[in-house]
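Work Package 3 (structural annotation) set out to generate three-dimensional models for the target panel prioritized at the project kickoff. During this period the team completed the workflow that converts sequence records into discrete structure tokens, so that structures can be stored uniformly alongside our sequence database. As a representative example, we reproduce one entry of 184 residues exactly as it appears in the project archive.
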Amino acid sequence: MPESEQRGADNSFLRFVETAEERARAELVDYGGNSVVALSLLMRRVNKLMAVDAEQVVLGPHNLTWASFRVCFALWVAGPQEPHRVAISTSMSRASVSAARKALVDKGYVTTASSPSDLRSIVMSLTPEGYRQITEIYQRHLQLTAEWLEPLSAPEQQILLGLLGKIMASPRGQIFGPGRAVNN
């Protein structure tokens, strides 16, 4: 989409947010002013736009899904682990981890071996190629995230980080604690 059309779409969405605020103010219970409506819509929109951008720019050239990326990232961060541990650290279901594991094994990014502590389970590990790929992919992901955060100064980024951390630490932010899948 050309930049002028994108700006128009952004302005259109912002007008939609304003209309939603007005409608909510007129017809619904007040949950702390218009900011709840706007924050809800804007956080979801930014999250979705960032995810779509990353899927197209970062994962697309490598033919990876978000699920596959998340599995590789968990193995890159924490090292070899059993699938149920990957599911916990990624907030994915075990079935989603299993499906991603199969695709990653086929690509040569992940290997499996019998678990030394539980003979009914396996341990997943990144291959050298998987390690190389996830390092490259994550570097590009960080670059893209930095581009998204460019409009904010360094102090504003720190404030945003603190605010998001505060939301995540709240009782509502803990509702999907360890082991509960949020999004597959």
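Helices lie at 3-27, 34-59, 66-78, 83-90, 94-107, 128-149, 154-169.
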